[in-house]
Amino acid sequence: MSPHPSDIQLDALREVANIGCGHAISALAKMVGGRTVNLSVPRALLADATGVAELLGGTETSVVVASLGILGPLRGLLLLVLPTPDSAALEALLLRRTDAPAEERESALAETANIVASACLSAIGMLTGWRLLPTVPTLQRGDAGPLIADAVFETQGDGRVVALETRFDSVGTPAVSGQVLLLLDAKSTSALLAHLGV
Asked: Which tens digit of pLDDT belongs to each residue from 177-188?
């Protein structure tokens, strides 16, 4: 992959995100009682930590991030990102109560992230023929800036990462919105594009 991906390469990456995140959000919809969950058109870009944080509303946006590593030929992180109020709404939906202890809420979010990541990576694996698995999720709460900076550094050191982003919004009350982000390192992105013939 060149330092600046071509339009054709970005289109191919957006299609990867569309397939993977589409399966991920279908899995999420089942977990929240079969609600309709709408997806945005995926975005694909090469960005530093600040640029990725801007996708989430800015560096000071309060979020909950479930981070999972990717095992297999594709290297990077999959992030399930929820604004703090939406995280609370999702926890209430999953547990069918609003007063659950913190450990139950954390466990429910971690399980959700694992199912969402597994569905996403399985779909990308079917597209590529690669065996891709998520690692155990790590949950963090705080401002988007520091959390994303850590994720970008883990993926690519001080460089820029390829970010594939899809936003979702559920229909119903309480509403839940959030984002699925794939952060990929340059080497495995090049391998993915070569594998796709672009």
From this structure: 999 999 998 888
